[in-house]
Amino acid sequence: MIVHNLTWDKYQQLLQSLPQTRHLRLAYDRGTLEITIPLEPHEFTRELISLFIRVLVTEMGLKLKTMGSTTLSRPDLERGVEPDCAYYIQNQAKVIGRTVNLAQDPPPDLVVEVDFSHSDLNKNQLYAALGVPEFWRYNGQEWQIFQLQEDRYIECETSPTFPWVAKSYLYNFLAQAQGDEAAAELAWPALVQHQSQGQK
């Protein structure tokens, strides 16, 4: 659902009035509010991509602060959005152990959106305006990776955070999980260990 000509204050009032346990996702961009309700295929994929990333971070010995779908809000830009997944990796040390405030803290290093339905908001422009360095989009068939350069995203073939991870790894992981999530979860760390050792 799209609501036009909604002020920032009204958007904030709506956020405050909704329960914390809600299943709705809200995205606001300078007067336009988009409300979505994630369905089963979306949630299945979101959970698995989150696991995919967590295993990568763990096996590669990186640091992590998971933000989940926490609202990323910038009143000065009149923009706010609830991503499917958001992570601090490179900047984890700057925000660990406390609540993030984007007025003074850097944005998450990596944000993921699972898009099974068309969005009327330009999510690339929205996350670029928030300064998110790396943005992933997955539409059920294609994994797109974007890196922020100046004030816009450039599509990349590999992730700046995980440069040796080919897109086929995610596709194969998701395909295996369709048949057996537990088997996919067991197999992925071993593959990451093998591949990351080859990079050293």
The largest sheet has its strands arranged as 4-7-8-9-10-11
The third-level CATH topology is tt1808, chain A
On the 0 to 100 scale, the average pLDDT is: 94
- Low-confidence parts, pLDDT < 50 over ≥5 residues? none
Quick one: CATH class?
Answer: Alpha Beta
* The number of domains: 1
- CATH-defined architecture: Alpha-Beta Complex
Helix content: 25-40%
> Which series of helices and strands comes N to C?
EHEEHEEEEHEHEEEHH
Beta-strand segment tally: 11
Cα distance spanning the termini: 48 Å
Shape: globular
* Main β-sheet description: 6 strands, mixed
Gyration radius, in Å: 17 Å
Strand content: 15-25%
Q: What's the total helix number?
A: 6
Molecular structure report:
This protein is an alpha+beta fold and 200 residues long. It has one domain: tt1808, chain A (Alpha-Beta Complex). Helix content is 36%, strand content 23%. It has a 6-stranded mixed sheet with strand order 4-7-8-9-10-11. Strand 2 and strand 3 form a beta hairpin. It is globular, with a radius of gyration of 17 Å.
List keywords for this structure.
6-stranded mixed β-sheet, single chain, 11 strands, about 200 residues, endonuclease activity, alpha+beta, endonuclease, tt1808, chain A, nuclease, Nuclease_put_TT1808, 6 helices, Restrct_endonuc-II-like, 5-stranded antiparallel β-sheet
